[in-house]
Amino acid sequence: MSSFTGNHILSVTQFNREAIDLVFNVAESMEPYAKRKKRTTVLDGAILGNLFFEPSTRTRVSFGTAFNLLGGEVRETTGMANSALAKGESLYDTARVLSGYSDIIAMRHPAAGSVSEFAEGSRVPVINGGDGANEHPTQALLDLFTIKRELQYNNKTIDGLHIAMIGDLRYGRTVHSLSKLLCLFKNIRFTLISPKELAMPQNILDAITDAGHSLHITEQLEGNMDADICYQTRIQEERFPSQDEANKYRGKFRLNQSIYTRHFQSKTVIMHPLPRDSRTEANELDNDLNLNPNLAIFRQTDNGVLVRMALFALTLGVENLVSQYERDVVWYTNK
Amino acid sequence: MSSFTGNHILSVTQFNREAIDLVFNVAESMEPYAKRKKRTTVLDGAILGNLFFEPSTRTRVSFGTAFNLLGGEVRETTGMANSALAKGESLYDTARVLSGYSDIIAMRHPAAGSVSEFAEGSRVPVINGGDGANEHPTQALLDLFTIKRELQYNNKTIDGLHIAMIGDLRYGRTVHSLSKLLCLFKNIRFTLISPKELAMPQNILDAITDAGHSLHITEQLEGNMDADICYQTRIQEERFPSQDEANKYRGKFRLNQSIYTRHFQSKTVIMHPLPRDSRTEANELDNDLNLNPNLAIFRQTDNGVLVRMALFALTLGVENLVSQYERDVVWYTNK
Amino acid sequence: MSSFTGNHILSVTQFNREAIDLVFNVAESMEPYAKRKKRTTVLDGAILGNLFFEPSTRTRVSFGTAFNLLGGEVRETTGMANSALAKGESLYDTARVLSGYSDIIAMRHPAAGSVSEFAEGSRVPVINGGDGANEHPTQALLDLFTIKRELQYNNKTIDGLHIAMIGDLRYGRTVHSLSKLLCLFKNIRFTLISPKELAMPQNILDAITDAGHSLHITEQLEGNMDADICYQTRIQEERFPSQDEANKYRGKFRLNQSIYTRHFQSKTVIMHPLPRDSRTEANELDNDLNLNPNLAIFRQTDNGVLVRMALFALTLGVENLVSQYERDVVWYTNK
After folding, report:
1. Which residue numbers delimit the Aspartate/ornithine carbamoyltransferase Asp/Orn-binding domain (chains A, B, C) (predicted)?
2. Fold for domain B12-135+303-328?
3. Rounded Cα gap, residues A267 and A150, in angstroms
4. A117-176, pLDDT tens digit by residue?
5. Which string of b and e fits B105-120 if b means at least 16 CB within 10 Å?
6. Do the Cβ atoms of C185 and C163 come closer than 8 Å?
7. Are A198 and A170 a contacting pair, CB within 8 Å?
């Protein structure tokens, strides 16, 4: 049992450094189960209510898989068109009812604040799987966990990190939440690269400087950077007044292997919250980076399973019981 | 093994008083598992086909959860847009095929009579999860089970019950089915409160009087009632010729704490089939009733899990084996 | 472990006769579990990613059920409207991400070639559940498995088979794939009955004659045929220039009990890939055939579960371990 047990996970602002350390330690301990070296059934009989009132295949499946890997069952719903919410039911009522059908809930909803409102009516712990422009705390945690792991290969820690964030820093929910979490650490160097129109909001900038971190803001990739992490984001075309404007910006903030070689040191890790747009020539993260071993985007999504397993285990108070309910895996796996 | 084993559950008319007693006794025995005091795997390996050709999140999840709580697996489908039914397949064919993939089926479909037609083709037991305006027997059973349990707190039984039904008694499928089940009991007093346009259908009125029960029909809440149960329903605006008419009726048949205090005794239990509409000021069941301990609406949905567990156990003939396949629950639960 | 272990199943062209024999032997060994005589948990802890980017209730549920019957869990998605693919993500990225959430993937997608492209990015084995007009190998295998089983009742083998294929042989993916598989056997007699406009493609005809099989092509049912199998297909009205044309063809290529009696020997087995259209009078496979014991269409879908179980077991290398993880089934079943 930890301080997480029985509590909701709604926002990155809930986490202090000690809590983050705990989550990450538990996440590391989940690896043998995620890699199918072993099977655990510690959550045998538990039911996850996987409520995606706004569809999101990968986040939904990631939560569901994490719960299955601990031995639990998943009941889920996708979309809102036919839900009682669409017929005028309050989030409170929906929460009272659906929390009677599960032991823990992962929820996504398009409206900012909706998951917290839902949590007030819920009789079981609720994990925020994204509530509109507001929060997506498990994404921020998996991003930070990935940074920690990638740095470890180079014998570095999050303290002292130099991170470059590129692209749409204004509307990109992930970079806001990640920045907030990084503020809990020491001596972080932020290099923020975005068009002025898509600059990081002032409240995040204030949080960074208030925490004593170093901040460099620029409108384009410059010179040779010693960033440990390059966190690229998606620029949505609809943010711009015209297609011409969008194309101009696209060119300036895209990343491919030759741009990477020109601007980053050979160990800089490339991250992105995904999905990336692969339809156009000049996309934000070119496919030619797929051969670059520093491209960590798929390690990010893999790490998401570990982090979500950790949050389930902590919230349901079994983080120390997992190995007691262990079995052998007898089927083929190359995980 | 009981008389339920291997049989379909299609209509409330299948039930006599003995059958109801059996279902309710089994439902009571399910509580330790539903409350996660214990885990059972009696249905290990069984597969529920949860076929919601008409979407209904809460009923679908309730069936699925009930099956998981007995140790079974759930395969499901939602909607009809992409189904073979939409391509001209008969319900018979759909049933032959899908019953090959499961051990029991819970089915909802928008067309009255469709579930029975489907059941004729099915090679496994089918439980009606609602077929349009026709039947929704598990809702009626959970309503009656809730009445029984709520009365028990006051040392009362269903025999001798005074129930007030309010609102749309014409189109409200739940009040029809519940009335039919109540006809199997003794000395029931029905007070039916609705606009004339939405009065209880004659065949239900006949069934009530034929069974020797007492019947009082009125168009508005009157004086001080000694009802044990106040069963409120949703009045759908589209039933009325104009928004003005709808508003007038809304005002007359709504319930909030002050109306409750004025018209009901302090122990009257408030029920509603849910969802309730919380968008408007004058909704049918005001949120200020949430603090009223007699508001049983969420106990109703909780009881639905028990009743559905009971029906699964009886239909699959394991009602006496559940505790033989018991395990401890080791994870946190506040159920 | 077999040659299947860890490999994708994308096309019928992957199979030689030895591989087919292996799949069918394993499929036969699955029957006690599919019929619920026994339960196995050999895939305990394994997760199937059941990714139906093109919806198909029965194929999706059949894959999911097959995986559950081996003890595994299923995470799934239906449709593409809200997927990352719709936002411009490449199949490669989708595969990299989603293969991190599962141990094996069954996938359907509307675009020909998409499943193979996805498989290149996947880190786990992928089974093609249908990629548009291209391939649907598990359907072809279950069709062939059904032929083998049906012939066995008459002490016959696939070698020496006489099969009549009727209807839309041009666009019908199933008859193409089945024909390719049959080319691996000996002395097959093909009678192909279709309107000229919907004739079997030349490449399939070539494959049949190259393999030394006998071929008879005609535009209508003739005389009395000694076919072992009559494989009927659906003629889609939209293939024809006008409703009149469609009706004319419908009449010519439909099958009902009296046409069956007139043209086929009493042991001819009737197959169809389903769904069949039951809305019109003159449908391709009349409901009056439901009483004909040679109508094998529902044995086909039942066999699909066995074949899919076999493919999962082989791909995950547990085909010889299934019975080691056996338990009793204690609940009612009439399978």
Report:
1. 159-314
2. Rossmann fold (3.40.50)
3. 10
4. 999 999 999 999 999 989 999 999 999 999 999 999 889 999 999 999 999 999 888 999
5. bbbbbebeebbbbbbe
6. no
7. yes
pLDDT higher than 90, residue A88: no
For B258-282, b/e burial (b = at least 16 CB within 10 A) is eebeebbeeebbbbbbbbbbbeeee
Scan for tokens 């990343």, then name that residue.
Answer: A255
Closest by CA to C177, choosing from C135, C228, C133, is: C135
Are C141 and C84 in contact, with CB atoms under 8 Å apart?
Answer: no
* pLDDT reported for residue B197: 86
Encoded tokens for A46: 């538990």
Sign of CA dihedral A143, A145, A146, A147: positive
Can you read off the two tokens belonging to residue A190? 């932020």
Nearest residue to A148 (alpha-carbon basis) of A32, A26, A24: A24
Domain ranges of chain C: 12-135+304-328, 138-298
- Paired sense of beta strands A326-328 and A38-40, if any: antiparallel
Residue of chain A minimizing CA distance to C124: A334
All residue ranges of chain C with pLDDT < 50 are: none
Question: Would you state the pLDDT for residue C278?
Answer: 82
Q: Residue A273 is which amino acid?
A: P
Output Rg (C-alpha) for chain C, integer angstroms. Answer: 20
Whether the ω angle into residue B32 lies within 30 degrees of 0, i.e. cis, is no
* Interchain contact, A274 vs C45, CB within 8 Å: no
Task: Name chain B contacts of A118, Cβ cutoff 8 Å.
Answer: none
Instruction: Give the dihedral of Cα atoms C240, C241, C246, C252; nearest 10 deg.
Output: -80
Nearest to A89 among B68, B276, B332 (CB): B276
The Cα angle at residue C164 between residues C158 and C167, in degrees rounded to 5:
135
Across the interface, do A58 and C87 touch by the CB < 8 Å criterion? Answer: no
With beta carbons less than 8 A apart as the criterion, state whether B186 and B159 touch.
Answer: yes
* Whole-Å CA distances, B273 to A96, B55, B279: 14, 17, 17
- CA dihedral of residues B115, B120, B126, B129 (deg, nearest 10): 10
DSSP, collapsed to helix, strand or coil, labels residue C128 as strand
Using a CB–CB cutoff of 8 Å, tell me whether A332 touches chain C. yes
Show which of residues 270-299 on chain A sit within 8 Å of chain C, judged by CB atoms: 274-280, 287, 290, 298
pLDDT in tens, B88-137: 889 999 999 999 999 999 999 999 999 999 999 999 999 999 999 899 99
- Angle of helix A57-69 relative to helix A137-153, nearest 10 degrees? 70
Fold of domain A12-135+304-328: Rossmann fold (3.40.50)
How far A100 CA sits from the closest chain B CA (Å)? 6
Residue in A103, A250, A61 with CA at minimum distance from that of residue A166:
A250
The interface predicted TM-score of the complex, written ipTM, equals 0.95
CATH top-level class of A138-298: alpha beta
Place of tokens 């309503």: B143
Q: What are the structure tokens assigned to B225, written together?
A: 């009632």
Q: How far is B297 from chain C (nearest CA, A)?
A: 32
> What is the CA angle C124-C130-C135, rounded to 5?
105
Q: In this predicted structure, what is the pLDDT of residue A108? A: 97
The secondary structure of residue C133, as a DSSP letter, is T
